[in-house]
Every structure is written in C-alpha cells, then in structure tokens.
From TrEMBL:
InterPro entries: cNMP-bd_dom (IPR000595), cNMP-bd_dom_sf (IPR018490), Env_Response_Regulators (IPR050397), HTH_CRP (IPR012318), RmlC-like_jellyroll (IPR014710), WH_DNA-bd_sf (IPR036390)
Pfam family name, one: cNMP_binding
Residue ranges crossing the lipid bilayer per the database entry: none
Gene3D superfamilies in the record: Jelly Rolls
GO CC terms, sorted: cytosol
Name under which the protein is recorded: Crp/Fnr family transcriptional regulator
Positions of the HTH crp-type domain: 155-223
Species of origin: Novosphingobium olei
UniProt cross-references to PROSITE patterns, sorted A to Z: CNMP_BINDING_3 (PS50042), HTH_CRP_2 (PS51063)
Single GO molecular function: DNA binding
Keyword annotations from UniProtKB, A to Z: DNA-binding, Transcription, Transcription regulation
Length: 230
C-alpha cells in the first residue's frame, strides 16, 4: 500500500525515494529530511519562484520539470537551467540575504518540496550527506555555467544545437532523446530563435546525422555530429 502525506497528498514512498537518491542517505535519514519539506503541486507554466522574491527556501523537485528563465528588457527569454526529479534549486539564500535571480516556472505538472533556509542549514550542519549533496550540486552548476559561457562565445548556432543534442542524448542511452525536444525549448537552451533551430534540425536530418522517430529524436552518427560542434 502506498502512503501519502496528509497535508500535501504526496506519496511518501516516492518522496523518500527521491530524497535518498538526491542525498545518498539511509531510509531513516530520508525520513528525517522529508519531514522538513513542504510539498506543493504546481501546474504547467505556473511560477514556482518569482524573480526578485526573497530566496528563503531551498526547493527539491520530487516529480516533474521546472525551469529557470531570464527575461530581457525587450521581452526575449533565455533558459538558465532546467530541474528534473531529484534536483535542488534556490540555494543562493542559504548563506546570507539574497533574492531570487530569475523566475522558476513549472514546465509540466510538478511536485516541488520546499525547505525553509533555517531547516536546510540545520540539516547541512547535522548530516554530512546533505552538505556533500549541496557541494556536488554547486560544483556541477559551476561546470555547466563555464561550459555554456564557452559555447556561447566560441560556437555558432549550429554548433550549439549539435552540442545540446549530444548533451541531451548522453543523459539517456547516448543516441536517443525521448521525448523529442520541443524546438521552442531547444531554442531557449541554445540562446537562439525557434526558426533558426528548426532550420538547423532540418539540415542535420537531410545530412543523415539525426532521425525523427515516433516521439523521439535519434542520433544516427555521434562522431559526425561531434565534428559539427566546432
């Protein structure tokens, strides 16, 4: 039988499993950590964290997909980061007064756990697994930021598209992206327009480097796609 939390109607077993995976901890510790989280449901396109709001919580994606988006003065948006099951975000307020840099919105229906900063700091101070998980997170974020900065200044749009396709495939079996990336979202990720990305994808298909399967995008030749990155 699957148990749920009374306040949020979230399956306890699923919450504990995500906590164990994120923090690499025991079932007992997962129960302690999960007990500090307030889990809420967010509809697609709803705002989870508003830009410039007080960064007073650390958030854990229990189930779903969230995205940090920056909006330029002319209204153009750009993807800063994506968050899926087990990812943490909102940690910038842990070590001093801070405000959220950008909006974080739900891409699809999502269950998000929120830890008050004081509670999360207490967990970090008490349990090394929590502190280590945050350290790994920050190192990964720094690596991603450096990669995107380098790609943005050194690669063409085609190169950025090829790099992003390879990155998405490597998060799975290395050759297939399922479901297939939405062109508008792919354009945001590579800081380009939907029209330009659509033309690039069509050119890659004509060259036989990628193939659209039902509900998926498959890489036909990883080596040749890698050669087009630079």
């Amino acid at each position: 039988m699957q148990h749920t939390t009374a306040a949020n109607n979230v399956p306890t077993d699923g919450l504990h499993a995500i906590v164990r995976r994120t923090f690499g901890c025991s079932e007992d510790l997962a129960g302690v950590i999960a007990g500090r989280a307030r889990v809420r449901a967010h509809r697609p396109r709803s705002t989870i964290v508003a830009g410039e709001s007080e960064a007073d919580h650390v958030h854990l994606v229990v189930d779903g997909h969230a995205r940090m988006i920056a909006i330029a003065m002319e209204g153009r948006s750009s993807v800063i980061e994506d968050y899926v099951d087990g990812d943490l975000f909102g940690e910038r307020g842990l070590f001093g007064e801070a405000r959220s840099a950008h909006d974080v919105v739900a891409v699809r229906h999502s269950q998000i756990g929120a830890f008050a900063n004081g509670d999360f700091l207490s967990l970090m101070n008490t349990y090394s697994a929590v502190a280590l998980a945050v350290s790994r997170l920050l190192v990964a974020r720094l690596d991603q930021a450096q990669r995107r900065l380098a790609e943005g200044s050194t690669l063409s749009v085609r190169g950025r598209v090829c790099s992003e396709i390879l990155r998405l495939a490597r998060s799975g079996d290395g050759v297939k992206i399922a479901p297939a990336p939405v062109l508008a979202q792919l354009a945001l990720s590579v800081d380009s327009t939907r029209e330009t990305v659509s033309r690039t994808i069509s050119q890659l298909e004509k060259k036989g480097l990628i193939r659209r399967d039902e509900g998926a995008l498959s890489i036909v030749s990883v080596r040749r796609l890698e050669e087009l990155v630079y």
